[in-house]
């Protein structure tokens, strides 16, 4: 039995401890906001927060998430999360939307660490979050707008 703390709720799940966290979230806990994109930590669609840090859930084994705080897009909360999500809507960042939960999780992580990021900070934090619709200009603008609203 593996004990996971997901979005502030404790779950005891009977699964293989080597299973990627992504599949535990999606298939066993029904949290489908975290997307499968590549399975190799190259696209960022599966980004969640592990103890407050953005990580690729496709590369984290369930046993490594045990007794740690995991936050998915369904559970983000707080001022930074609310502002980022509101700005994403306000600036209509989303086109198809597939990558956006990972993009938002990375942006929240960035703004939680660096309240006034420069373009280089944004590029570094968002690197590896692939958007097939190429909304990168809108994503960068949204991060800057969220930083302004948080200031």
Whole-Å distance between the termini? 44 Å
As laid out across the biggest beta sheet, the strand order is 2-1-5-3-4
Strand content: 5-15%
CATH superfamily of the largest domain: [2Fe-2S]-binding domain
Number of domains: 2
Helical stretch tally:
6
Helicity, as a percent range: 40-55%
CATH architecture of the largest domain: Orthogonal Bundle
Largest sheet: 5 strands, mixed
Which structural traits does this protein have?
151 residues, 2 domains, 5 strands, 6 helices, alpha+beta, DNA polymerase, domain 1, globular, five-stranded mixed β-sheet, Ubiquitin-like (UB roll)
SSE topology:
Elements: E1 2-6, E2 9-13, H1 21-28, E3 47-50, E4 53-56, H2 62-65, E5 69-71, H3 79-90, H4 100-113, H5 119-126, H6 136-150
Parallel strand pairs: 1-5
Antiparallel strand pairs: 1-2, 3-4, 3-5
Helix pairs in contact: 3-4, 3-6, 4-5
What does this structure look like?
- This protein has 151 residues and is α+β, with helices and mostly antiparallel strands.
- It is built from 6 helices and 5 strands; from the N terminus they run ββαββαβαααα.
- Strands 2-1-5-3-4 form a 5-stranded mixed sheet, with helices on both faces.
- A hairpin with a 2-residue loop joins strand 1 and strand 2.
- The protein starts with a strand and ends with a helix.
């Amino acid at each position: 039995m593996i004990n996971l703390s997901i979005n502030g709720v404790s779950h005891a799940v009977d699964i293989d401890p080597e299973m990627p966290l992504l599949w535990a979230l999606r298939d066993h806990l029904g949290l489908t906001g975290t997307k499968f994109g590549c399975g190799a930590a190259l696209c960022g669609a599966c980004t969640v927060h592990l103890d407050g840090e953005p990580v690729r859930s496709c590369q984290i084994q369930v046993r490594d998430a045990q007794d740690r705080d995991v936050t998915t897009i369904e559970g983000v909360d707080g001022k930074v999360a609310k502002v980022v999500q509101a700005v994403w809507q306000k600036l209509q960042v989303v086109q198809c939307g597939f990558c956006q939960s990972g993009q938002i999780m990375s942006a929240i992580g960035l703004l939680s660490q660096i309240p006034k990021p420069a373009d280089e900070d944004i590029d570094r934090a968002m690197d590896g979050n692939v958007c097939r619709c190429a909304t990168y200009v809108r994503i960068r603008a949204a991060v800057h707008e969220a930083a302004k609203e948080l200031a």
